[in-house]
Amino acid sequence: PEVVTLTERADEIANLYENASWVNRGLDGPILYVVSFRSCSTCLAFKAAELQGLEDAGVDVRWIIYTRRDREDRERSSAAERAVQAELWLNRDWHLFEEWYAVDPTTYYATADLPPSADDDAERAAAVEEARALVEQLSELYGENGVDLYIPALLWQQDGTWKTYVGYEETSFALVRAALTGE
User: Fold this and answer.
1) What are the pLDDT digits (tens) for 36-70?
2) Short-list 33, 21, 23, CA closest to 123
3) What is the DSSP string of the chain?
4) pLDDT for 100-147, tens place per residue?
5) The pTM is what?
6) How far apart are CA 151 and CA 166, in angstroms?
7) Is the pLDDT of residue 71 over 90?
């Protein structure tokens, strides 16, 4: 992964991130948007390696969670995952986000008091679909910038321009970290 300056429809991309139903701790520093899904291994690596340091530096990390569509008759999200994602999308509950990520998802789904089903409720199903549609829109717009959308997809503003970084590798993330923390 490398840092890319968005040149095509950058403000439209930024508006999609800004107007999505993100969850955050609410810090006062620079804003970093992160598109993620719960079982994304590179997202988990990013969260484990970078989140605490970014937050300690005051970076307001805003998580936009979605669930992946099924593909070729293969289920890529569970009913429980969709229920939690819909709840996050509708209510932006930071504490739910933290609880969800504190343990393995299988354990969480088996032991937690889950939100209502997103499969049996029109409003919750619409929240799942809205999040998925956002990622599909971002994929198209990123393509116009010559970028393949990988997850996590990160966005921040630097020197009046919108920057993005897709995927995660600890060594190449140093430029993003420096841009956000000044280190």
Assistant:
1) 999 999 999 999 999 999 999 999 999 999 999 98
2) 21
3) ---EE--SSHHHHHHHHHHS--EE---SS-EEEEEE-TT-HHHHHHIIIIIHHHHHTT-EEEEEE--PPPBTTB--S-HHHHHHHHHHHHH--HHHHHHHHHS-HHHHHHHS-PPPPSSS-HHHHHHHHHHHHHHHHHHHHHHHTT----SSEEEEEETTEEEEEES--TTTTHHHHHHHH--
4) 999 999 999 999 999 999 999 999 999 999 999 999 999 999 999 999
5) 0.95
6) 6
7) no
